[in-house]
Design goal:
Elements (H helix, E strand, L loop, with lengths): L2 H13 L5 H15 L6 H8 L3 H13 L3 E3 L6 E3 L1 H7 L2 E2 L2 E2 H16 L2 E7 L3 E8 L14 E3 L4 H8 L5 H8 L13 H14 L2 E4 L6 E10 L3 E11 L8 H21 L2
Antiparallel strand pairs: 1-2, 3-4, 5-6, 5-10, 6-7, 8-9, 9-10
Helix pairs in contact: 1-2, 2-4, 3-4, 6-10, 7-9
Length: 268
């Protein structure tokens, strides 16, 4: 979000009946930090959002105290904390996605020996909200909060495929389909066909579309009456997960997604 857009939105909020400027400022700070790959300093936030430094200071100190922000003591840059990610997670029947996913993630990790991840939609892509580290000496390393795009990886394509129409097509029309490797989908029409294929077979694959030599298989996590609320996947070097094994291992990933969904729907 640009600074001018933020300022205009703040001005509009203050003019609306019932608008709370301090709340809108806090949300603008959170949204600004969500879009910043390396965080922002107090001065950068103040300049970008056209807000007084003392106002930004008070809000960020409150968010720090409540655990929604982190601040690097060396660079003094603010970043969103994992606690913010928890707010985005689906919560059904009194259990959060992370809680419901823990045992199925570990079970899938133990069967595949590979790093297993769970993610949800966020803006024009997705974000990792939980993971179970692989057991192999050479394994895929991920962090909670890692962002991924819709078009060049298995979990992103799966989340895109499960969007309701016409939202899916509108999203595809907006995406910048840049290539990460020579196998990345860069054609809107091809991406539409890929989404249809994902829905037909029930899982998504990544054949070295994000990183050369890295493959991935993803499955949906579907909650009753809410459709696909998240995705689970595992990634591995191509020599341990060849393309010919995608169909066989997909059964394990799909079952893990169903196990998480059952926990979301039934536990309270």
């Amino acid at each position: 979000m640009s600074g001018s857009h933020a300022a205009a939105r703040l001005a509009g909020g203050r003019g609306q009946a019932g608008g709370v400027p301090s709340v809108e400022r806090a949300l603008d700070i959170l949204e600004r930090l969500r879009a910043a790959d390396r965080g922002q300093t107090l001065s950068e936030l103040s300049k970008a959002l056209h807000l007084p430094k003392n106002a930004v200071f008070r809000i960020t100190q409150t968010l720090l105290a409540r655990g929604y922000l982190l601040r690097d003591p060396a660079t003094m840059r603010f970043e969103l904390s994992r606690q913010v990610l928890d707010l985005w997670q689906p919560r059904l029947a009194g259990v959060s996605l992370t809680e419901a996913a823990l045992e199925p993630m570990r079970a899938l990790r133990d069967r595949t020996r590979e790093t297993v991840q769970v993610g949800v939609r966020l803006d024009e892509g997705g974000v990792v909200v939980a993971h179970a580290d692989g057991l192999e000496p050479l394994r895929i390393a991920v962090d909670v909060g890692l962002r991924f795009r819709f078009h060049d990886n298995a979990p992103g394509k799966l989340l895109l495929a499960w969007m309701p129409e016409p939202q899916r097509q509108e999203t595809i029309d907006r995406l910048e389909l840049t290539a990460s490797t020579d196998r990345t989908i860069t054609s809107p029409a091809e991406l539409v066909r890929e989404c249809d294929a994902i829905l037909a077979r029930g899982y998504a694959t990544d054949h070295a579309e994000t990183e050369p030599g890295i493959h991935c298989v993803a499955a949906p996590i579907c909650a009753a009456d809410r459709g696909c609320v998240a995705t689970i996947w595992f990634s591995a070097p191509a020599r341990r997960l060849p393309k010919g094994a995608f169909r066989d291992v997909s059964e394990l990933v799909v079952e893990a997604g169903k196990a998480i969904a059952r926990r979301l729907d039934s536990r309270g």
